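FW: tagging you since you asked about this chain on Friday. Here's the raw sequence from the shared folder, copied in full. Didn't touch anything.
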Amino acid sequence: MILFTSVFLLCFTYIIYHNRNIGLLLFFFLLPTYLVRFTILTLPTTLLELLFFITTATILFHPKKGLWHTRQHIFTFSYYKTFFAKHPSLVLATTLFCISSTIAIGVALDTTKAIGAWKAFFIEPVVFAYLLAHVIEKKRDIEYILFGIVLSGLATSVLAIYQHFTGWMVPWDFWENRNTYRVTGWYGFPNGVGIYLAPIISFAGYLIATTATKTKKHVRDHAQLWLSIICIPLALLSIIYAKSTGPLIGVAAAVGLWFLLHKKTRTWTIVCIVLAGMFFFSLPAENPIKKEVLAQDRSGQIRKDMWAESVEYLRVHPITGAGLMSYQKEIWPYRIDKWIEVFHHPHNTILTMWMNIGFFGMFAFVWICVWLARVSLQHIVKKQSMAHIYILCVLTTFLVMGLVDSPYIKNDMAMLFWLLPAWAVYSCTKKSTQ
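HL: got it, structure written out here
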């Protein structure tokens, strides 16, 4: 295992050193490798984290293309001042987010676990986003990154569909009853599949839209176009096989928003939404789909109890929350359903953020989301950038899933989330029509 990992990391280093775009494509393709965990000199780490360190070092210190050599001004106070002048809300919100997550380490019950979460969910994604905002200089650069994500989603989808028919790698808890059977992908739990694949559908949509309009297509463009087209139905099928309702609704919300943002389809979209709403609420109260969507089934009731427990806890600790990775132990005295396991998070993004990094950390996260939405809508209205439509669609998927789950607190998803501000900064700076 050590030999294989060492060879793998050396190969990755060689690739990203000689071709940064291919290296970034591979990095995002390999996002699920956070599941490969080991210890180096008593320090726990993941394969994804090692890839992050190699990628960051190459971006910074490459002798010809490194930011430290070619753009040293980005590390100076004067540059930060200029960057702040361009994006004051994003800088302030991100700073508050990082400070709050750092303070949460001191509040946490287990400092070692807290530091691990702090690195993986808060600091490393933010640092990477800042670097990507300067590395992405052309439309082609973001296409490589998104293509890596789509390929990763395609691989995950193929595995999930294969699992549906064979049960390979599916834990026995999800395999023993065929009536409730759910695929789990690489993750070991069904919602991991849905949470990861749902936003990738919007990334694939962007690649299809931009690649299809190119007058001259190279071999890479054809591969990018057709694999993105294939990824969307396979990802949807995988989410269905995982029986992940939140991600499915998140995808539906993103698709509905996409049609609403286009003037030609806006009226018909509104009509369809109204008719769909009327049909849904006309369904019998015992309809299983209606009960699941309205959180009236067993799973929904458990979630509502978790939310109630969390709200009660936050009444007592409104500023600090529970501290990083301390929810499971801190929430125990407030439990309603003591007969079931204690989940890692309260299955709601806002409550999860509040619990982990306190009120101000939660506020900063909401602030970042509002910044993304506001900037995207401004550019959509001005018709300056197609990219902002898809940024908004991905953000919508994240937030809708976050109503019933905690998609951010997952190594790969934290990286995907922070790709959005980096992409938005590039699109704002270039004022691209792409």
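FW: Residues 97-137+261-434 form one domain.
HL: agreed, and The two ends are 44 Å apart (CA to CA).
FW: great, closing this out.
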